[in-house]
Amino acid sequence: MLQVAGNSNELAFSIVHDLRNPLSAICGCAELLVTANLDPEQTRRVVDNIRRASDQMKNLLTSIVSVAKGRSEDIQSCKLNEVLSAACDAAGVVRRDDVKMVIDASQEIELWMDRQRMERAFLNLITNALEAIPCAGTICITASETDNRIQLTVEDTGPGIPAEIRCRLFEPFATAGKKDGLGLGLTFSRQAVRDHGGDLWAEPSSGARFAMWLPKHRTADSRN
What we know:
By secondary structure, the protein is an alpha+beta fold. It folds into 2 domains: about 10-70, Helix Hairpins, CATH 1.10.287; about 75-220, Histidine kinase-like ATPase, C-terminal domain (Heat Shock Protein 90). The chain has 6 helices and 7 strands. The longest helix is centred in the first third of the chain and has 30 residues, at about 40-70. Mean pLDDT is about 80; it is low at about 1-10.
């Protein structure tokens, strides 16, 4: 379960701060639609901005609830590549022409998981990697299979993990000045992986490198 350091005011201010930016974007875009004489292409871009801001708010709230809730609820057999591809799509990888996305995982790998929860866990890792790459770079996800588990890594060519948060990387509200983010993404991701019977950690690398393992078969930790 989520353990939050600090008082309730700190939590409230953190949540309000990180919801204010997307809410302001939605309000500004809505005003443009009402007051400006936009052509169809401009209208499409404004609507896309509203959609992205709405998704951001939804993801923030979902992460808060999921971290506090803890356990997985809807366990099913999933193809790993499909879950990774869905997470890449949600992160907006296709909108970054300067970032190369590499997924090295067998099409045959299947895992028992709460698909939505694990998709959000991968989404957090991929989004962090995208935000860490200021211009051209690469994100590489690899998966290898053993008798009882799947080993995965998510690695990027960004500047790496800031020293000031390295020792508390997976604690709630640990963030290094990201423009948008509550500092719950890695907390949520690790909790999701652990609730599936595996684990998630950071490894030394020139960029950021996160490694995890997940059990191949359904375990007591991943049951309803």
